[in-house]
Amino acid sequence: MIDGQQEKSDTEAEDRTYLDWLPEYLDSFDSFNNGDEKDGKQLEESGARRWERDENEEPCGRRGIARVFMEGMTGDEAQLPYRDQVDVVAGFVEQAVEKGCEKPVALLDDRKSGGRLPLKQKDFRPRSWSLTTKELQAELSKPRFKITSAQENSAQSAQDEACDAERRILFLPDLIPSTMEAVLATAPRNHALTLKNFFYKYLTSKAAIGVTIPSHGFKVFTFDLHIPFYVLIESKELFQDYRKGSDHKPLRRSSRLPSLSGSNGSLRPLCLYESQVSVTVTGIDHRVWTAYGSFDTYYGSSDSVQAYRATNALTGRPDPLAAGQLTAHNLIWDPREYYFKVFEIRIQQVGREWRAILDQMEEDVDHSRNNQNLPLNIDYSTTRGVREIGAWNGEMVTLLRRLIGKLGDTVEAWDRFQKKDVAYFLFDDDLLTTSSLLESSINEVDNVFLDLKDILRKLRKLEKGLCQDSPQGLNAVYDHGNHEAQIFQQKSAHHIQILTFITIAYLPLTLAANMFSTTPGVLPFTPNFTRFILCFLILAVLVLMSIAASFRWRSWAQRILRYLCCIRRKADVPKDLEQGLGS
Description:
Oligomer: single chain
Radius of gyration: 42 Å
Order of helices and strands: EHHHHHHEEHHEHHEEEEHEEHHHHEEHHH
């Protein structure tokens, strides 16, 4: 807030939406600066008109709900942790909104944690659990708490208590623009900053684990859990994420696992899908809190609204954020325990996916080393295999680096959490927590991360092996590439030799033809066929002698020099004898 002081946060703030409060605050702030006075009714009407949306108005001609929400008050945008946070979230929502989407897109579970009500009556409202986009916005627009006066009788108070929704769970799988817009349009005032960060980290697939308790503004807590990972599925069909990000590219990437022809990969079509787990728990105390969860299911995951609806019909309403492992019979009311239990369940799923990917990568690399050995004296006909192995090697290294980057970010987020925020869960004030469930969940999560660190180490070892140690690594491919270039040069030189031989072979005939085609009177004899053949033979002998001289001229020159030296020595001997006799 502007005044820099913490505000008192109660159930009234949970029922006041951020978009309703924002224009009223801005109008009152302007009125205070301008010396004008407006009553509450005028401010409320002006605030409602400020964000009123005309369905016939073009999206490019207005500031959308998401952009107004993300920008907030003057100066709020500069306080966001990421520079592109407004554009990423607003750009995603401002895309074409789905029309006529009647299938359920969310699960909303509201419960009263009071001890006086039986379990059957702890549901907030007698409504449908699974909601369409319109139903979701309508339900979130209803007051979450019913404020009663002190003069009301006990029966009325009990009825009011039954209406309160102290524990809210909102499940948003495969988040789409219209669903996000419905949540932002109805978001409580004290959830604004939490949702700004939550949706951005989900859309950008960031890794984050931590606790946030702001030093100013509302007295609220936020537990963040954002884990990017990959899912390996054996399928002939490659599913694509139909959602588009603010850059108009698919929100999540999907690809086939690189494979060599003749390897096991060609018999088992394996698809690799990018996925994200995003959960945030925020509230004002251990009694009143909300949990938001978004998960990717575009690749055919069972973590969907339809799957949980079917489970509800069989075993009762499950908790979708906890992958259905928590039901109405074992609900967790404490937000810290709930957060870490969901953390435990989801990180175990993520760990299994990373382990499956590592096992498959190791199998493919070992198979390439054992069954794809390249011959040392490779010829031109086998260079296609060299190119295939080189391309596979490059794709595997690129994939490994992408996997290492995602897993490394997750491990680093956990390490930061252990150094900075884990004490918030291990201690109650200055004493160790007495919650056995919390201690058990923290230990289980830590064990999974020890396994994830081992997987990360092995992935890095695989990358290094493909780049350096493996005989089918990049260095070997480069050597074979140089060998292929040498083969090409040799073949080119051989072709040039053939062309040179043909040229020389026809040179005497060409010279003879040119001589006999000159103007009459140039040659000292009368041209005829016999003389043409004789001329051709003489020229052929001269060409052969020239060729022989070009190859043997050094040895011939040495012989001539030796011969001249011998003649000179023989000529000098008589002069020496005459001088000797004279003396």
